[in-house]
# Entry
Amino acid sequence: MWRKILTFSVMAVLASAIFAAPVTIQFWHAMGGTDRIQLLQNLANEFMQQNPDIKVDVQYTGSYTDTMTKMIAAVRAGNPPDLVMIYDIGTQMMIDSGVIIPIQNMIDKDPSFDINTLVSASRGYYTVGGKLYSLPFNSSNPVIFYNKTLFEKAGLDPNNPPTTFEEFVADAQKLTVKDANGNTIQYGFTFGSGEPLSWFFEQFMAVQNALLLNNNNGRNGRATKAVFANEAGLRIFNFFNDMIQNGSAINAGPGWDNARQIFISQRAAMLITSTSDVNMMVKAAQSGNFSLGVMFLPHPSGIPYGGVIVGGASLWMINTNNTQREEATWKFLKFLESTDAQIEWSTGTGYFPVNKNSIIKLMYQGYYAKNPPYLVTVLQLLMSNVTPATSGGVTGAFPQIRTAVDNAFGKMFTKAMTPQQALQWAQDQANQAIANYNSLY
# Structure
């Protein structure tokens, strides 16, 4: 009798283990657009097929700012996600939050994960004080897309695009076309203001290997001051202002969309935007019947080229005080960073792979040979020197700093301030924002 009872009890325990509900983890992301939302769901589905004991609840939580706000609210409510996508400039805020599990902690416990497979520049941004806090995922940087067909019409060599500020400004003027009444019907260059423009400013500082913040961009210690009101910063303000004032560039207004449409409709010959737009631009060139080119960001003549800063976002593990969910989240995160998953993500979106093996595999498969625009977006990052400048600035005041820089550009474009005055004003505003933020920690 007791043997039957014991046998039944053992069987019951085994059945309970076999049919136990899989552990569920929540993954919040900020990738809008039907294609990107579906692609992330597809990746999660592939992972769940391989790991039936784990269920991944994938949720699109709005913009980067929306996602950050919702994450903070969820933490306060005691129901945080396990994995969340946070934009690049949220790095210091996430570190200071006290609610994260630094990725370095997971790597130190797991010898199966090779940190050296990550592209150095991508890894460098999210490494602060020698510790890797999050894993890069949807990484990007800005490039210049240009219309080779319009270059040819203007008598310019489409296979020899400008590489310096001086050449770029000169070519923008040659690419500007007016009608009989003097109205501009084609601009040489277009860009979006707001966050795009302030991001471009940061990138052009890195191109000159110039720092945005003290303490080596906040990487050798907490940043306490902005330091961009210098010759490098002034060159950037003058670069944009010269083209606005001579009429060869058009400020498309806040955001990304207007500038994209101006370029796609061939009302501008050159566009600065994110590498993540490469899929869109390739399709636009095909439907618009023009030849598309992609060039590295230009640099001031005589200034050694530094490189670009990784943009986009990374994936952060939130401390839920649940070991089972933590282990499942880490397993899913490793899957997303794997060679094949990164290939699927990159080719489906235009973001470049953050896994070196993915880039090598795509190269061997002939993908980049067949798709030259995609190669340029990857090469610009791989050819960047890894320095404190190209690793990017780290401060919790970054959102306010970007607002100040964008407003300064606006004051300059309307001639309310000279380039030098506007630049100094932006730095003064940035210093106040940094002081306010640091007073909280």
About this structure: The radius of gyration is 24 Å. The chain has two domains: 2-139+310-381, 142-307+395-438. Residues 2-139+310-381 form a domain with the D-Maltodextrin-Binding Protein; domain 2 fold (CATH 3.40.190.10).
